[in-house]
Predict the 3D structure of the following.
Amino acid sequence: MRSRGGVPGTPVFPARPPLVQLQQGKPPSFSQTDLHKAQAGVDQAYAETQKDPNRRWGTATVDGVRKTQQLWLAYRDAWVMFGKTKFPKVSADAWRTWITEDRLDELQKLLL
């Protein structure tokens, strides 16, 4: 298993269908309700990270999380475009939900 930040056993990506599963015909399947729930979770978790301007998570700062969130929005949109191109039968909302849930996992880990 590849690791995030050099921590053995820590997955690089949360437990979502990896590309191998996608290529085996097991794409993500989410509803618009799932997307709204995931986005609300990201919005709430992100807002929580921004409450204390002096808070740090190791070397990560509140400003760093803010900048990363802005970059993540472009990454999310690019991932949706890739997903729709590679797997056109999967809806944009399903791709958006899939990647948004990953971002929610990342933000929630900061708040532990």
Observations:
- Residues 62-86 form the longest helix (25 residues).
- The CA atoms of residues 45 and 107 lie 6 Å apart.
